[in-house]
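Q: Entry one of two.
A:
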Amino acid sequence: MVIETNNITKFYGKKIGCKDISISVREGEIFGFLGPNGAGKSTFIKIMTGLLFATSGTAQILGKPLNDISVRKRIGFLPENFKYGEWMTGEDLLSFHASLYKLDKSIVKERIKEVLSLVKLTGHEKYKLGTYSKGMQQRLGLASALLPDPDLLFLDEPTSALDPIGRKDVRDIMTELKRRGKTILLNSHLLSEVQMVCDSVAIINKGSVVVQGNMEELLNSEEILHIHAEDISDEVINTLKKIDVNLAFENNSISMKVNNKDDVHRAASIIVNGGGKLYELKSQGTNLESKFISIIEGGDNK
């Protein structure tokens, strides 16, 4: 495992920053770390990158104990809220970060060219950062994180200031990095973006992980069945509630959760055999946003 944590906990006095965080991130995967504002995501990431010390718990990063200094050369980090001096040029900033990473001076110029090309900022490196748009600053921050050619990349809201084309570019970069065997821990509020690129996900709320696992398995654990039918009796509805006790029924429309294809067939049979007229039936897989809302609002604690 590239990241393996066991009950990582951080207290700020009596206030919980995060509590008992245990996650496993495999090599070469994009791992989504999600939660509402104030859930503890940034606290956890700062602990992983050595900016904070955990109150308790243990972890290994790239096979080394947490806070092993040698690991930091193999990590890239793009924080959510960063601010660079407006008087610096893009090249100045990347050169400065290269010195912080202690990159060999013989490769710095070539490496700067490579990361500028990757984030599509070639030709802008001589301009002062005060002239950069928010999106350009975001791209430059990503370029800085990529300078040491890290094995593990922590990205905190990497697409927050980007337009749709810019977000696609960042998705493409993450996909290419994954192809090269890099591992990415991604924190983003744009859940549609997370769903498109992540292999696994953990959702945190009030400082603790409430669900984690493979993205595909998480979203395929249930489907929403939409039914349009007439002459639906109370008896039919009560029987359907044996499949989903919380189904919604209004104006000849039924929405209910099903766990498999057998439930779909069973629902159709209940309606037809109960004297109903079935006009439309379609199933829709749960998307990450609806799953996230269900979990955070307490409707799903699995």
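Q: Entry two of two.
A:
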Amino acid sequence: MHHAFDDWMKRHFPEVKFERYADDILAHCSSQKQAGKVLEAIRIRLKECGLELHPEKTKIVYCKDADRRSSHEHESFDFLGYTFRPRLSKNKYGKHFVGFSPAISKRAENKIRKEIRHWAIHLRSDKSITDLANMFNAQMQGWVNYYGRYYKSAMYPSLRNIERFLVRWVMRKYKRLQGHKRRATNWLGCVRKREPKLFVHWRLGLGSPVG
């Protein structure tokens, strides 16, 4: 792709900035007319190289924001685990405005939830709560580092699933708490109060309340 696309793009459209990761490409055009021209040229170029554009993923997207207020068939796109779309933002002076911004995509959220389920935390009653933190914190921190760069709160619902499985773990590990979800939740909240940094999601304030 470096020869088939990168070098060719720089030669034929030096004014158009682009990003490419493997075979996912994002090109920034200044108008719909330019976008149509560039898209058709890319289509022809890839065909010359024995390649073709993905029929469903390929589209022209209008980056709607406070300055671009028209409408278009497509006003969002996914790239590298993020969904870019119009979102309400706040500047450094506290004023709200609409910006075209990224946040974790639904597909990435689902992958995180699936991974958490595969951990089967609730079945690991042979482990201590510190063991669980040591086993999974690195993965959680990786998610926070990557998907938390923009609109960190958008990934919070996915991380809260960890707490749900931890409550089930408590009920399974301690016989006196079996079948007592509220008491198990309270037990976990007390641990969090003593060790608020034990789990990565606790450091973000996503733990069980005490009460």
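A: Comment on entry two: The radius of gyration is 23 Å. The chain has a mean pLDDT of 94.
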